[in-house]
Design brief:
Blueprint (H helix, E strand, L loop, with lengths): L1 H8 L7 H14 L6 E5 L4 E4 L18 H4 L13 H5 L19 E8 L5 E8 L9 H11 L1 E2 L2 E2 L3 H13 L6 E4 L6 H10 L8 E5 L5 H9 E2 L11 E2 L1 H4 L4 E5 L6 H13 L1 E2 L8 E2 L3 E6 L3 H6 L5 H7 L2 E4 L10 H15 L6 E2 L1 H8 L6 H15 L4 E2 L1 H7 L8 H23 L4 H8 L3 H10 L6
Parallel strand pairs: 7-14, 7-15, 8-11, 11-14, 16-17
Antiparallel strand pairs: 1-2, 1-4, 3-4, 5-6, 9-10, 12-13
Helix pairs in contact: 10-12, 13-15, 17-18, 18-19
């Protein structure tokens, strides 16, 4: 068994430098973890699998000819449907997931990510498997695990999309491979980068943040690479760049999509050679820095339109990570609300405020186009500008959400709420405030009417 695993675990030689780098990074970070990790090609051949991925029956398989459905699903034929094939058919698909049972895959795939070559083709997929189910008697332990999964550093979330993000962070943290974080504004890309740094072996070294979109090209180059005395007007002394400051640690390049083609070429050389040259200097300086970049734009589209270098994209996205918008992880809103309210009360020296069920329901049903950042600022504003031991629905409605109020979805929701409130008032007037008759007139249940009365602050209507 051990011999066959060694064969299957050996990463085959790869002439494509991007795929070779990604396979090597995956091998380094997956070899010492208990999670099951594997890489498969489009013909379902197992290119690599860590020790945890192999079952006791793996001894019967030949490492060079093992198929994923044989090794992980214990089948003689391919699974009925494998979602991973979608990534070969549609390169824009960033990840897929599947479930047990039925005609679907039985291998236990939790999530799969495409591995793209330097030519832009999806050549293989990285697969993260579901954890093995625990016996029923370990229910209490499972509860502990769920609590643990809901928080990693300052990241909070127990929804399925966030569990995938937290699992991926734990998986990639100790690798030195580059990470590209993509997500809408306000989803917490810098916080994810900081969490990766703090859970890695580089945690005791510097974490340097660079906002690439806020600096002109010449200044950005000087800030990152440093300059020598006399390199340009005003350079009265030599200066170390941020790459040197981050040596041994992590540098976070935010808004990487806003950089120019000239800067992208110089950054590509830094990633390839592991060294920098100060502006105006000729002496190369070796650096050991983990590079994490982020953008709220679709770099694949920018590559297609020649607005971003393709070779740099593949260097930055050795380990791609997509953050879900808050509207796709609404189950996390109660956790975030409690955290932000408690933090705001502490910061502004107020007693801890409670959040009523009405408020929690209203906040959970909001789309939050500004994502986690908007929710955080909204709650802080509510804490600072209201009084009392509890945040009420009246307080929250009075606060409004002006920045988000101009998007079509929010306007439509606001109009619907106003129309519902007006119709409920009309029904109550028609029935002499008889709620049972009003519910019948509105063709909803009495419980639904009571819920709406609470939501709209109309309990006394």
């Amino acid at each position: 068994m051990a011999g066959s695993q060694k064969q299957a675990n050996s990463v085959p030689s790869c002439t494509d430098p991007i795929l070779a780098a990604r396979l090597e990074a995956i091998k380094q970070l997956a070899s010492g973890v208990s999670e099951r990790v594997a890489v498969m090609d489009r013909d379902f051949n197992v290119i690599y699998a860590n020790e945890s991925a192999w079952s006791k029956d793996a001894s019967q398989l030949s490492g060079h000819s093992a198929k994923c459905y044989e090794a992980f699903a214990h089948r003689n034929d391919p699974c009925g449907t494998c979602p991973a094939t979608k990534m070969y058919e549609s390169p824009e698909v960033q990840s897929v997931a599947c479930s047990f049972g039925g005609d679907g895959t039985a291998c236990g795939m939790h999530q799969a990510f495409p591995l793209v070559s330097s030519s832009g083709e999806v050549e293989s997929v990285l697969v993260l498997f579901k954890a093995s189910p625990k016996p029923a008697k370990q229910t209490s332990s499972e509860r502990v695990d769920v609590k643990y999964e809901s928080k990693l550093g300052e990241l909070i979330g127990s929804s399925a999309p966030m569990r995938e993000v937290l699992d991926m962070i734990r998986l990639v943290a100790d690798s030195s491979a580059t990470v590209l974080i993509q997500g809408e504004s306000g989803t917490g890309k810098e916080l994810v980068a900081k969490t990766i740094h703090r859970t890695s072996y580089r945690r005791d070294k510097s974490f340097v943040v660079v906002d690439c979109g806020s600096l002109p090209e010449t200044l950005l180059e000087s800030e990152l690479f440093g300059h020598v005395k006399g390199a340009f007007t005003g350079a009265h002394a030599s200066k170390r760049g941020l790459f040197e400051e981050a040596d041994g640690g992590t540098i976070f390049l935010d808004e990487i999509a806003d950089t120019t083609a000239t800067f992208q070429a110089k950054l590509l050389r830094v990633l390839q050679e592991g060294e920098i040259k100060r502006v105006g200097g000729n002496q190369p300086i070796k650096i050991d820095v983990r590079v994490i970049s982020a953008t709220n734009k679709d770099l694949v589209d920018l590559v297609k339109t020649k607005a971003f270098r393709q070779d740099l994209y593949y260097r930055l996205a050795v380990l791609p990570l997509s953050l879900p918008p808050l509207r796709d992880r609404q189950a996390d809103i109660p956790l975030l609300v409690q955290h932000f309210v408690a933090a705001s009360c502490k910061r502004h020296r107020q007693p801890v405020r409670q959040v009523s069920p009405d408020v929690m329901q209203a906040l959970t049903q909001t789309s939050w186009p500004g994502n986690v950042r908007e929710l955080q600022h909204y709650l802080e504003r509510a804490v600072v500008t209201t009084t009392g031991p509890e945040l009420s629905c009246k307080d929250i409605v009075a606060m409004g959400s002006e920045p988000a109020g101009h998007d079509l979805r929010t306007v439509a929701r606001g109009a619907t709420r106003q129309a519902e409130r007006a119709r409920i008032l009309q029904a109550l007037q028609q029935t002499g405030s008889n709620r049972a008759k009003a519910a019948k007139l509105l063709k909803i249940s009495r419980a639904s009417l009571y819920n709406k009365l609470r939501t709209y602050g109309m309990r006394d209507a």
